[in-house]
Each structure stands twice: as structure tokens, then as C-alpha cells.
């Protein structure tokens, strides 16, 4: 099983959106028996909370299930469990390095580095623009699935 985790600051906006969207892509590609998906936060502010209402609304708009999404914090042990650790912005990447103790490890990737965009996914908790976040996360998730398919011969 290939394990993927998406990480943002609070695990209520960007990373659960990416988890749900990527899980939907994996299901549509009939890869659920090969790829498992999760999400986590670098902070402990929202542990146990459901995704932000804006994230839930955008997922509903695109008919993507939000079932089972709940905030949790990234743990050092997650480094060993996951094959791909995907941060939403440069700050998340630095925090992932700190939490895992694995700076600059190739399995830790900023999501939009996989696209031509190569910038941070802005946090809609602060911008209020869940549509922009969805567009960027969608492009990143598609690029990630392409990368995994190529690297893992799927």
C-alpha cells in the first residue's frame, strides 16, 4: 500500500480538502487497493474538529465525500508510515521537517512544486477564497497522482 498524507497548519481547510479530493481521484482511477490517503496539521489547534464549513461547501459543490475527515496533528512516527508527505505551503514544509526531524527529505514535498504554478496554496481560513484553494489543490493532486503512477508503476 502506498500511503499519502496532506499537511497544513490546522487540518481544517487545505489538507482535508486535498485528502478528500485525492481520495476521490484514487477511487475514480480504481486505485483504492493501492493508495491510502490521510491528512494532518502542524499545529494542535483543531484536533478532533471537522473541516471548515468553506471546505465542506466546496467539496459538496464538486460532489466529493467529506466522510471521515477529522483534524489531527502530524506525529514524528508519520514519517515512517507515509511514502509521500505533502505540505500546502513553505511554512508547513518547515514545520514538517521540524516535527519529523527529517529536513529536506525527498518524500516531503510542497504540493504545488509538482505543478507549473510552484507557489504556496493560500490558506482560505485567512483569504476566504475556497474556490482558488480548490483549483490549486486539484491541480496539485492531479500532478501528484501522475507522479505516483509513474514512480510506482501503477
TrEMBL record:
Record EC number: 3.1.3.48
Domain Phosphotyrosine protein phosphatase I: 2-147
Keywords assigned by UniProt, alphabetized: Hydrolase, Protein phosphatase
InterPro entries: LMW_PTPase, Ptyr_pPase, Ptyr_pPase_sf, Tyr_phospatase_low_mol_wt
Catalytically driven reaction(s): O-phospho-L-tyrosyl-[protein] + H2O = L-tyrosyl-[protein] + phosphate
Domain of life from the UniProt record: Bacteria
Cited SMART domains: LMWPc
Family, per entry: Belongs to the low molecular weight phosphotyrosine protein phosphatase family.
Protein name: protein-tyrosine-phosphatase
Organism in which the protein naturally occurs: Neobacillus kokaensis
Amino acid at each position: 500500500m502506498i500511503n499519502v498524507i496532506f499537511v497544513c497548519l490546522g487540518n481544517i481547510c487545505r489538507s482535508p480538502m486535498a485528502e478528500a479530493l485525492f481520495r476521490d481521484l484514487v477511487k475514480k482511477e480504481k486505485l483504492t487497493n493501492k493508495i491510502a490517503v490521510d491528512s494532518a496539521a502542524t499545529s494542535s489547534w483543531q484536533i478532533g474538529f471537522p473541516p471548515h464549513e468553506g471546505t465542506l461547501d466546496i467539496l459538496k459543490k464538486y460532489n466529493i465525500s467529506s466522510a471521515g475527515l477529522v483534524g489531527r496533528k502530524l506525529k514524528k512516527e508519520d514519517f515512517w508510515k507515509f511514502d509521500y508527505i505533502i505540505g500546502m505551503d513553505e511554512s508547513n514544509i518547515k514545520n514538517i521537517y521540524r516535527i519529523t526531524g527529517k529536513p529536506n527529505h525527498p518524500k516531503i514535498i510542497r504540493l504545488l512544486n509538482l505543478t507549473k504554478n510552484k507557489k504556496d496554496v493560500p490558506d482560505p481560513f485567512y483569504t476566504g477564497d475556497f474556490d482558488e484553494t480548490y483549483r490549486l489543490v486539484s491541480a496539485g493532486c492531479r500532478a501528484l497522482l501522475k507522479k505516483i503512477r509513474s514512480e510506482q508503476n501503477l
